[in-house]
């Protein structure tokens, strides 16, 4: 026997539109037929539905339990009635009764079609949720299907069944799109609605800029370079802070690319929006200095309790540090997560700040004097040689070169190298401006 042409036609359309495989198709068909049987014979009906993979033939068999007294006519049959068909039946046996599709009424056929459509929709919703719930922050592409009440309805290239929109507040209002135009956006979140999952896309969020850099920079794709923080004022300016897990890879240079090709590709997608790329630092004071680029910051003071940074810049750097309408300092504050208060050198001195910060030579801190015998790593025999030569403390040997040590009897080249290394380790301090050079070289694209 074969199924109703209405059901088969509906299945054929669904198979083509939804790209169902054979197993899914059979499951849907069985479920739909069981729904039709329930509509005709009752919700407790017991039946078997067999589908022949080769011929497509469908066999439907109702199963009735033989009982002494019937309490559920949808799945039970009396012993007397069963024996009309076969005298051998006993209580507890199962009577099988084949069903032809011709016996199905229009309501039952409609119930089967509705159940199949419902199952397809449920499976579609599950697939959409499974596909996109882990893709927040990724770049998606499609075309503008419709523009309604300010929002853009997008048909995605790879998952056309998914409902995807770009709300008005997630758009770059300097851009204008028309129906049928290609568009790229970042997946910001997945919303559950009564009609199923809805994908909320954005072209205004800082996530969009990060997704574009992931597309353009292989080192980010390979997890060598990471974007640790981002701040954006859509259509105007973005700041990103980058970090490299490999000391041999410059994170800023990787994002800028040869002759600025990589950052320029991102700028073009953003319609000329300016992008500042700065190195990330775990030290909030150093990070604040870098985040205020392209302005040069002289000193910073932090208050961890209030998460506030006081940054002092020279008078000619103040307007650059503030930026147009306060944009530069505002984005730097968002990037670092700290409130940044800016002062010119004059303002800082007038409010009773420290000694003059500009134009005066820096005073090097005196290295604490330590007896050579108390320094770990120097062999006692070498200490004795140095003391015999008149060198008894760290300050005594701090300015000696390798050749000076080699002139002393009993000190071999490897011992001289070890002494130079110990001196360097004890006296080298991280320069305050070590990150500023990187900041000066950071990209400010889109000017």
Structural features, described:
It is a single chain. This protein has 17 helices and 16 strands. By secondary structure, the chain is an alpha+beta fold. It has helices at residues 5-18, 22-41, 79-85, 106-132, 206-216, 218-221, 251-256, 261-269, 284-291, 318-322, 327-336, 345-350, 380-388, 394-397, 402-406, 413-427, 434-440, and strands at 47-51, 58-67, 76-78, 94-99, 139-148, 151-156, 163-166, 182-193, 196-202, 225-233, 237-244, 274-279, 297-303, 308-313, 339-344, 444-445. The chain folds into 4 domains: 5-130, N Utilization Substance Protein A, Chain:P, domain 4 (2-Layer Sandwich); 133-204, OB fold (Dihydrolipoamide Acetyltransferase, E2P) (Beta Barrel); 207-357 and 437-445, GMP Synthetase, Chain A, domain 3 (2-Layer Sandwich), CATH 3.30.300; 372-427, 5' to 3' exonuclease, C-terminal subdomain (DNA polymerase, domain 1), CATH 1.10.150. The strands form 4 sheets. A 5-stranded mixed β-barrel has the order 5-6-7-9-8. Strands 1, 2, 3 and 4 form a 4-stranded mixed β-sheet that branches. A 4-stranded mixed β-sheet has the order 10-11-12-16, with helices on both faces. The protein is elongated, with a radius of gyration of 38 Å.
């Amino acid at each position: 026997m074969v199924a109703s042409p209405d059901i088969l036609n509906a299945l054929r359309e669904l198979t083509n539109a939804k790209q169902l495989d054979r197993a899914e198709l059979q499951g849907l068909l069985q479920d739909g037929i069981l729904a039709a049987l329930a509509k005709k014979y009752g919700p407790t009906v017991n039946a078997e539905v067999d589908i022949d993979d080769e011929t497509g033939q469908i066999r439907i068999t109702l199963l009735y339990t033989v009982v002494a007294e019937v309490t559920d006519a949808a799945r039970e049959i009396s012993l007397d009635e069963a024996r009309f068909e076969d005298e051998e039946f006993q209580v507890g046996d199962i009577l099988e009764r084949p069903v032809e599709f011709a016996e199905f009424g229009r309501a039952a056929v409609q119930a089967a079609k509705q159940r199949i459509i419902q199952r397809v929709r449920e499976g579609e919703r599950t697939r959409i949720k499974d596909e996109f719930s882990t893709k927040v922050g990724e770049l998606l592409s499609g075309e503008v299907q419709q523009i309604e009440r300010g929002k853009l309805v997008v048909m995605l290239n790879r998952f056309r069944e998914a409902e995807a929109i770009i709300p008005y507040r997630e758009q770059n209002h300097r851009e204008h799109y028309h129906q049928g135009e290609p568009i790229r956006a970042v997946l910001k979140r997945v919303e559950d609605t009564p009609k199923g999952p809805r994908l909320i896309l954005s072209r205004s969020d800082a996530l969009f800029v990060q997704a574009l850099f992931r597309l353009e920079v292989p080192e980010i794709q390979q997890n060598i370079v990471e974007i640790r923080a981002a701040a954006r004022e859509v259509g105007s300016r973005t700041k990103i802070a980058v970090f490299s897990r490999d000391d041999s890879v410059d994170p800023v240079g990787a994002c800028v690319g040869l002759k600025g090709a990589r950052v320029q590709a991102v700028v073009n997608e953003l319609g000329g929006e300016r992008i500042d790329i700065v190195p990330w630092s775990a030290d909030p004071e150093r990070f604040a200095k870098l985040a205020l680029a392209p302005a040069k910051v002289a000193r910073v003071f932090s208050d961890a309790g209030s998460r506030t940074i006081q940054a002092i810049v020279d008078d000619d750097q103040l307007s650059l540090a503030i930026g147009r309408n306060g944009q530069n300092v505002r984005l730097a504050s968002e990037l670092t997560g700290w409130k940044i208060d800016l002062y010119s050198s004059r303002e800082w001195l007038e409010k009773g700040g420290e000694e003059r910060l500009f134009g005066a030579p820096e005073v090097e801190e005196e290295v604490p004097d330590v007896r050579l015998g108390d320094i770990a790593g120097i062999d006692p025999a070498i200490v004795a040689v140095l003391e015999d030569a008149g060198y008894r403390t760290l300050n005594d040997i701090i300015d000696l070169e390798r050749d000076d040590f080699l002139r002393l009897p009993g000190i071999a080249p490897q011992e001289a190298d070890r002494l130079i290394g110990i001196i360097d380790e004890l006296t080298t301090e991280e320069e305050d401006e070590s990150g500023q050079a990187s900041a000066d070289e950071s990209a400010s694209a889109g000017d």
